[in-house]
Specification:
heterodimer, A: about 350 residues, alpha+beta, Aminopeptidase, 6-stranded antiparallel β-sheet, B: about 350 residues, 8-stranded mixed β-sheet, globular
């Protein structure tokens, strides 16, 4: 399964080499051009039957992870987080470091050795190390370099009822959707597909790509929070697994274009595609940068709900992913020739 | 001008974020001697152009950015008795302010002192507490009426500090973050006078870095370089801070990698340091570097960005301490980097991905 390959590849923000190569390999036979810019964004152009509005479909390929920041004399490795991760999930996880994928574990003091008051506190990243089994600093530095990126090792699996478990579903699921779309037959109009870098460290790639492409409109495909779990009240669920792609009205980075959102809703209804509204105004996506590029770009966000994003193991519903592909597909087939401009804004 | 003399001069000159003119004046004068033209943009950035060989519209453009602003204070209220209440400009630690000497830039510069109760009259538990900004005040030794004639709310305040030369090549003073970087840029321009380089070099002393890398945002857009290198300070080794979070004073320039940095620029800087035997150290930044490099990288269509730093102890106090050797090594590395860049090397910046 494509999503399995994407999920199990490494691509921490700033170190997207492996995931970019895999995506490039997947899409190259199906697109007119494929190039990288100076930040590492992968920009492809899918030829349509004719030229319409300049559309970019954007999905980020980076994932949260860690980076090597130092070595102890003992050969243990000090690390920092790249992107937003809760320190408490790091303990007792298996990771891979650098291009050689050197395996290591994030260890912690055995509970037997902890004082009673220690047991009550969360363990902070400053007190954690990665152990690659090296006996000395010299030995560790032979295998691992300062600045090497670190990602979790999590095997992708289909579990439960149409669900899948894996790491980096935010946003390899978005990549999977865009790759599927790029593999399809030609659409009425040409468009750009952009796999961005560094979304997780502040939406760094998207603005540069949008500046270059000068789009008339942008559609961002994401993996978004689903908090439909015990311990969270219904009003805090944000999105729900299995209820279809989520449309964003607003988050902390963008207020999406009303005309585009209305259009997406209408298309979903006409085509029997389930959808939901993302019920949260926090967090952000690449749309935040794109919408503010140059003179402004009408932007919308379509997301696949994912539980436990930014954690070593997330869960999503594969039907939501399929329905997101369908929604983007009908969007491209029905795109108005004149784009959206101020439609729906009064 | 000798680089230590230059650093001493700009270190002691006031230039709080948004009010960098006096420092800019000195920088303009010295940059002029080593470049072809110098201008200031709408925000006050100083932008010098040192043209490369056969300079033309297609020449490779490299921008160097070091910020010339410093953190400081602003008058927030004139209290009864003529004492001044203060607000911070940039990230200033109130605990470093107690009983410091200051200069209040009213209608004229007035020397003053930040008041501190003598230990005799302190309550026993007062000494245990950290100092809070809202408890601090400036004493100008003037009556309320005299103060009001010269000082208004909104006036800028700098900390006063002489530049001190310490043992070895060490020096201490205020605003070395990032006047040391400006000194590196000047020294780099001086070194380039003796080297052949194809690239047009834009040496920029940026404004308002301490309040959100603002000068770099507009100067990077204005210059639109192919490559950009920020020069800033990083934390030096000191007791109580783990080794992996600091770099060593006197052990050379610091070359940073991480998401903010283009992998090819990092690789080239390291290779050139090796080739020319310039002492260097490496650092890895997991996200924002807190420098002008953060703004440079995402200007326009994106700029291949690097970061070169000078290790510095006691950052954002008025006794920042560094080694002049590290400044010289940083400048030498930058000059060699610039001289090594050719127009046809640009392809690598995108093809490496």
């Amino acid at each position: 399964m494509l999503l399995k390959t994407l999920s199990e590849s490494s691509g921490v923000s700033g170190g997207e080499q492996e995931i970019r190569n895999i995506i490039r390999q997947q899409v190259s036979p199906h697109v007119e051009e494929a190039e990288t810019d100076v930040l590492g964004n992968l920009i492809v152009r899918k030829k349509g039957e004719k030229e319409g509005p300049t559309l970019m479909i954007v999905t980020h390929m980076d994932e949260v992870g860690m980076i090597v920041v130092g070595f102890e004399k003992s050969g243990l490795i000090k690390f920092s987080k790249v992107g937003g991760i809760d320190d408490r999930v790091l303990v007792s996880k298996v990771v891979q470091i650098g291009p050689q994928k050197i395996p290591g574990v994030i260890g912690a003091k055995a509970i037997h050795l902890q004082k009673p008051e220690e047991r009550k506190k969360s363990i902070k990243i400053d007190d954690m190390y990665i152990d690659i089994g090296a006996g000395s600093r010299e030995e560790a530095e032979k295998k691992v370099k300062l600045g090497d990126y670190i990602s979790f090792i999590t095997r992708f699996e289909e579990i439960g009822d149409h669900c899948a478990k894996g790491k980096a579903l935010d946003n390899r699921v978005g990549c999977a959707v865009l790759i599927e779309i790029l593999k399809k037959q030609n659409y009425p109009y040409s468009f750009y597909g952009v796999f961005t870098v560094q979304e997780e460290v502040g939406m760094r790639g998207a603005g540069a790509a949008a500046y270059r492409i000068k789009p008339d409109l942008a559609l961002v495909v994401e993996g978004t929070t689903a908090a439909d779990v015990v311990e969270v009240k219904k009003e805090g669920h944000v999105t729900t697994l299995g209820k279809g792609p989520a449309l964003t009205i607003m988050d902390a980075s963008v207020i999406t274009h009303r005309g585009m959102v209305q259009f997406l809703k209408k298309l979903a209804e006409q085509n029997g595609i389930p959808y939901q509204i993302r019920r949260f105004t926090g967090a952000g996506t690449d749309a935040g940068r794109i919408a503010l590029t140059r003179e402004g770009v009408p932007s919308a966000v379509v997301s696949v709900p994912c539980r436990y994003i930014h954690n070593p193991a997330g869960i999503l519903n594969l039907k939501d992913m399929e329905n997101t592909v369908k929604l983007v597909d009908v969007f491209l087939k029905n795109l108005p020739e004149g784009g959206f401009n101020n439609e729906g804004i009064d | 001008m000798d680089i230590t003399e230059f650093l001493q001069k700009i270190s002691t000159t006031p230039g709080v974020s948004g009010y960098e003119d006096r420092v800019a004046e000195i920088v303009v004068e010295e940059f002029k001697k080593n470049s072809h033209q110098v201008r200031r943009d709408a925000l006050g950035n100083v932008i010098a152009l040192k043209k490369g060989l056969n300079s033309g519209p297609d020449s490779l453009k490299i921008m160097l950015a070091a910020h010339m602003d410093e953190i400081g204070l602003m008058v927030s209220k004139v209290e009864e008795g003529g004492f001044l209440r203060i607000s911070p400009v940039g990230g200033i630690d109130p605990r470093s302010l107690l009983n410091q000497e200051v200069l209040v830039h009213g209608k004229k510069d007035l020397p003053g002192v930040i008041g501190a109760k003598s230990p005799h009259i302190l309550e026993p538990d007062e000494m245990e507490k950290g100092v809070k900004m809202d408890k601090l005040y400036i004493d100008l030794g003037l009556s309320e009426a005299q103060v009001k004639e010269v000082v208004s709310v909104g006036d800028i305040i700098t900390i006063r500090r002489e530049f001190v030369r310490l043992g070895g090549q060490m020096a201490a003073g205020k605003a070395l973050d990032d006047r040391a970087g400006v000194a590196v840029v000047l020294q780099c321009l001086q070194e380039l006078q003796g080297l052949k380089h194809d690239a047009d070099v834009y040496a920029v002393a940026t404004v308002q870095e301490e309040v959100g890398v603002r000068g770099a945002i507009v100067s990077a857009y204005g210059v639109a370089p192919d490559m950009g290198i920020a020069i800033d300070v990083c934390h030096g080794d000191m007791p109580g801070v783990p080794e992996y979070r600091t770099s060593f004073l006197g052990k050379g320039t610091v070359i940073t990698t991480g998401p903010n940095i283009h992998p090819v620029i990092y690789k080239k800087l390291v290779e050139l340091a090796e080739e020319y035997r310039i002492p260097y150290q490496k650092d890895a930044a997991p996200g924002p570097t807190g420098t002008d490099a953060w703004a440079l990288q995402i200007s326009r269509e994106g700029i291949a960005t690097g970061l070169v730093s000078i290790p510095l102890r006691y950052m954002h106090t008025s006794v920042e301490l560094l080694s002049m050797e590290d400044i010289k090594h940083s400048a030498r590395l930058l000059a060699r980097f610039i001289a090594a860049q050719k127009q046809d090397g640009l392809k690598e910046l995108t093809e490496c991905f």
